[in-house]
Amino acid sequence: MKLELCWLVVALVCGLIRSVGGVVKLMSFNTGLTSRIPYRQERSQYIAGHLAQSQPDYICLQEVWHYRELYNIVKQNIATYPHSFSAIRSSTPSLLSNKGFHWPPCARFQVVKMFFKMWWYGCTSKKNDVDRLVCVTEKAFFMDLPQDCITCLTMTKLTASAAFSNCLGSIRNQMNVPGLLVLSKRNLHNTKMVYFRPNVKQLLPRGYLMAEVPELGAVACTCAHTAANLGKIYYEPNLKSQISSWEEENMQDAGILIRDLSSFPKTIIMGDLNSSPSIPDKQIQGDFERTLALFTKKNYTTPYTDLCGLCTFCAENNLVPYKTSWILDHVLIRGMKAQQAKRVMDMKIPGHNVHPSDHYGIQVEVNSAT
């Protein structure tokens, strides 16, 4: 694949930043490290070894759900990125000193009862993922489980073998919900994990990471992942009485980001925002475009789209099960100017004929002095 000038935005909250020389390279990449996407082990190893290839200063990763993969990514990149932050650990030393040896997220008798009810009520015979999820949430008390276990099982398609290997069978199966990881060349201060709906159990909770990076100036920088378009049926059990669609949840997530960052004169939002502009000349299909319009209304610009405009979730990617292409990943900025944007992590893994993820990564150079 090409390395055209493009930069992917993953909503990464980096807090207050002070620029050294004014120019900062920001990278966003949805790793897709779930058992739902094939070649997970091979892709995980390749991702950990190639993140620094484009030499970004800060990296915002999404869908690094499991501790063992998070640990390996941080450890392999510690020489270049000595600082990290996730929902599991607030610093690299605390992460590497604890190898994640603890009780697996679903190692409890409740899970045995849930799988029995799945079988009893015919949920296991459902061929469609959505039908299976709806069945288990309505009949098997799925949402009574701990949040980490709910999310882990949701990503396994609720099959017994995948559930055991990912959520039960290993003492290194701690979950990093909501899947975000920040790597930084510079120290991170006052780190904070923010969930969009902190008091509500969800199948896939969303949120963002926040930290202060004093070396970069008065810039609020976020690393986030907002709700995806998962089809016409909205099936979040604890939200469907208040929210009618995935687009509505996505717009609410965006609204929370805008509100939380409104007091900062300069802001960066990096992440998989699951909203795409329509660019017919480049065969880019629009999706949740009202969310991008909401950001634009609040004076955010879209440098990856403007300077590059290449798809980040693409039909050409052999891990993408669709024949259409979107720009779902963004670096949105307010009060600053971007100098360059390019697509990264878009080459196939040698010897495997598969891309590192179903998403491509993006990188944007921002001048925080402007």
Report what the structure shows.
The chain is an alpha+beta fold. The chain has ten helices and twelve strands. Strands 1, 6, 7, 8, 9 and 10 form a six-stranded mixed β-sheet that branches. Strands 4-5-3-2-12-11 form a six-stranded mixed β-sheet. The protein is globular. The N terminus is likely disordered.
What labels describe this entry?
disordered N terminus, alpha+beta, 12 strands, 370 residues
Write the layout of secondary structure elements.
Layout: E1 12-15, E2 23-33, H1 40-50, E3 58-64, H2 67-76, E4 83-86, H3 92-96, H4 109-120, H5 129-139, H6 147-154, H7 160-168, E5 181-184, E6 189-195, E7 207-212, E8 220-225, H8 246-261, E9 267-272, H9 289-297, H10 303-307, E10 329-334, E11 337-344, E12 361-367
Parallel strand pairs: 2-3, 8-9
Antiparallel strand pairs: 1-8, 2-12, 3-5, 4-5, 6-7, 7-8, 9-10, 11-12
Helix pairs in contact: 1-2, 8-9
Q: Output the radius of gyration.
A: 20 Å
Mean model confidence by pLDDT: 88
Which blocks of ≥5 consecutive residues have pLDDT under 50?
Answer: 1-20
Write the H/E string, N to C.
EEHEHEHHHHHEEEEHEHHEEE
Characterize the quaternary organization of these chains: single chain
Report the major sheet: 6 strands, mixed
Distance between the termini: 33 Å
> Which band does the percent of strand residues land in?
15-25%
Assign an overall shape. globular
What is the number of helices?
10
Helical residue percent band: 25-40%
Number of strands: 12
Structural class: alpha+beta
